[in-house]
């Protein structure tokens, strides 16, 4: 019975992902030539791209520290440099179809450091849940000018706040649900409400920082960045979340770009050819920023495993 349920869940994921990717490719069809011509004519201002890159790496550091603090709140200990290695290397798994490989790699690397693999995976899942919740909230607030049903948006924000507030009590039930669907044992950390709120705040700050970095990147690629900063925050966060939820699109490929183009055009940030050029350029940029650190950590000597206390 459990195997049948897991197989049905996996099949549903594949069908959903295939439908999303098909729709995204169809939406972008016919625009690639225009985007290629626009990319060929671009004169990149590297100072803006460099500034955007610095902000992205600072945001990575914030996210790593957020995960580390949740781990510490659950009774584990992990130095920042070791946490950074685990975070970057396991993050390479996002480019493999399915979203489980990153967590699988994280559990193995955590075990090598005498950190409970279940707690490492559970902390990561908690951070992802908070990141999605805060990301949706940031999108609704930053992109409020594009929201047609304000009452519905307010209702969603209230539900998101309720989710964060009740997260410490919901975690055990969530762990049981994930275990029943995936067939894998999952243990989410039992932590104080103050730790959850602190993690949610850091997640919200990370979305804002990513949006600012994206605006600077657009300015570096196109030579200007029409529109306000809030619009860039909303577009980036929305496209990233949509790409993340496309479970079997490696790194959210194609899906995220389609959402990015749609958002930029709708909020008047650029024309469609420019938006697609930015989407392609940002995909290359962010892929390098995510993969290079992971490969660099793999190339250097592994940290000595900590003895079990």
Task: Describe it.
This protein has 309 residues and is mainly alpha-helical. The protein has one domain. The chain is built from eleven helices and no strands. Helix 4 packs antiparallel against helix 5 and helix 9 runs antiparallel to helix 10. It starts with a helix and ends in a 10-residue tail after the last helix.
Secondary structure elements and their pairing?
Blueprint: H1 2-28, H2 32-40, H3 46-73, H4 80-91, H5 100-112, H6 117-142, H7 150-182, H8 193-222, H9 229-245, H10 255-266, H11 272-299
Helix pairs in contact: 1-10, 2-11, 3-4, 3-6, 3-8, 4-5, 4-11, 5-6, 6-7, 6-8, 6-9, 7-8, 8-9, 8-11, 9-10, 10-11
Distance linking N and C termini:
40 Å
Q: What is the H/E string?
A: HHHHHHHHHHH
Using only CA atoms, what is the Rg? Answer: 20 Å
* Fraction in beta strands: under 5%
> What is the number of E strands?
0
For the sheet with most strands, the description reads:
none
What percent of the residues sit in helical stretches (DSSP H or I)?
over 70%
Low-confidence stretches: none
